[in-house]
Amino acid sequence: EVQLVESGGGLVQAGGSLRLACAGSGFTFADYAISWFLHAPGKEREGVLSFSPYGRFTYYGDSVKGRFTLSSDNAKNTVYLQMNSLKPEDTAVYYCAIGRDVWVYHYWGQGTQVTVSS
Q: Which backbone phi and psi does 74 adopt, to 5 degrees?
């Protein structure tokens, strides 16, 4: 059974940083594209970052370029989303997802809340 569990969210002041983690089980990360997307109240779901299968390319949403990066610990089957220079408009629930291609979400976790205060 595929499972994705996000953690690391919280409250941070504008300009601060957070690192989200996504622990996966029931699959091999390298076989899938790994993505993060966010969902803010009253807004459409928005892609944050998508990492192609086998880690060849990373694609960033326009709003996070230069501020968010992805890293991974293959031994722990965990990926991390490092978020720097956070802005109040980054406030949302953040989800990690896997799919057979970039920006495709076949499975995702329960999400973790990120709140950025001004």
A: -65, -35
